[in-house]
Amino acid sequence: MDQDIQEIQAEVEKNYEFVDKLKAEIGKVIVGQEYLVDRMLIALLADGHILLEGVPGLAKTLSIKTLCDSIQASFQRLQFTPDLLPADLVGTMIYNQHDGKFTVKKGPIFANMILADEINRAPAKVQSALLESMQERQVTIAETTYPLPKPFMVMATQNPIEQEGTYPLPEAQVDRFMFKLRVTYPSKAEELQIMNRMTVGATFDVQPVIQPEMILKAREVVNRIYVDDKVKEYIVDVVYATRNPEAYNLDLGELIDYGASPRATINLALAAKAHAFMKGRGYITPDDVKNIGPDVLRHRIIVTYEAEAEEVDSEAIVQRVFNEVEVP
Predict the structure, then answer these.
(1) What CATH number should be reported for the domain whose range is 30-195?
(2) pLDDT at 164
(3) Could you give the CA distance from residue 285 to residue 4 in angstroms, rounded to a whole number?
(4) Of the candidate ranges 36-40, 109-113, 212-216, 250-254, the one whose mean pLDDT is the lowest
(5) What are the pLDDT digits (tens) for 118-142?
């Protein structure tokens, strides 16, 4: 077993060097936002998607576009609006009058990285088309199925303000996202640096430091990262505590309507592996699970009316679970 861990550790050390290069390249453009950049890289390595909640102007589009440029990948930004149709996203069949045949016109979903801006502005059919693409990694146009490019990652944004005219994502669909992130304002020093950088008309030449194939190779290493049986049990305990808190002496039964799904267990383990990879380790620790856990669980717990009345949100419940579930 020790020999296997040493082999995995050697593979991680051989492949994770590009992480610092990517962060340095992204740092040429993005000031601060280390949390957002780290989570984007973890989601990319774990083959997951991100639902991001934050007010406008926090460099969400710029961050993912810069990441794309750094790995020489294709990028599409989709502004979701109430009049958007599924065909505007996945593509459609076009009739050619000259030869009397239909040809396929692929939609913008056929890119490595997608920014779905204000996903809750689009109606349910468009949201379902996007989420099906995320889950199946393929799109069906007419009778033909087309695979999406690899790597493929969606970062969807929700605006926490101006909720008029929106179509909130159903909880079952939100569960398809590996992470739900809450991005806050930069610090005063960071905002001063942003102003100095962005108000002088300067252009930023972002160079590709890796190829998409390196991400796919790194994913293979991430999947092989060692997870001890006790850590596996800890991951299951954390998720199970959101469904049956009484079994862990947690007084949360009246606050939780539905706990996290088995997909949460899978995503928590994968994200913890990617987090360990980012740290240059071939094995995960409980700290990896605790570090990444709130981002995996906060959107998967549905609170009761009693919790809302007491102003207790899913964030507070997740924090209590991690504070009180025994760590191996």
Answers:
(1) 3.40.50.300
(2) 56
(3) 17
(4) 250-254
(5) 888 888 888 888 888 888 888 888 7
**Contact status, residue 273 vs residue 296, Cβ threshold 8 Å:** no
Residue with tokens 């390595």: 45
- Between 205 and 233, where is the model more confident? 233
Q: Do domains 30-195 and 225-324 have the same CATH topology?
A: no
SS (HEC) of 184-245:
CCCCHHHHHHHHHHHCCCCCCCCCCCCCHHHHHHHHHHHHHCECCHHHHHHHHHHHHHHHCH
pTM score, whole prediction: 0.88
List for the chain the helix, strand, coil content (%; round to 5).
50, 15, 35
Q: Which residue in 162, 178, 238 sits closest to 45, CA to CA?
A: 178
Domain extents for the chain?
Answer: 30-195, 225-324
Q: In this structure, are residues 258 and 166 in contact, taking their beta carbons and an 8 Å threshold?
A: no
Q: Looking at the chain, which runs of residues are DSSP E strands?
A: 50-53, 75-79, 91-96, 101-106, 113-117, 138-141, 144-147, 153-158, 179-182, 256-258, 302-303
What mean pLDDT value characterizes the chain? 85
Q: ∠71-73-79 over CA atoms, to 5°? A: 125
- Whole-Å CA distances, 258 to 69, 167, 255, 270: 40, 21, 9, 22
Q: What is the mean pLDDT of residues 106-115?
A: 89
Q: What is the C-alpha separation between 210 and 23, in angstroms, rounded?
A: 12
Q: Distance between terminal CA atoms of the chain? A: 19
Phi/psi of residue 179, nearest 5 degrees: -125, 145
Q: For residues 200 and 26, which has the higher predicted lDDT (pLDDT)?
A: 26
Tell me how many degrees the CA angle 62-65-68 measures, rounded to the nearest 5. 150
CATH class of the region 225-324:
mainly alpha
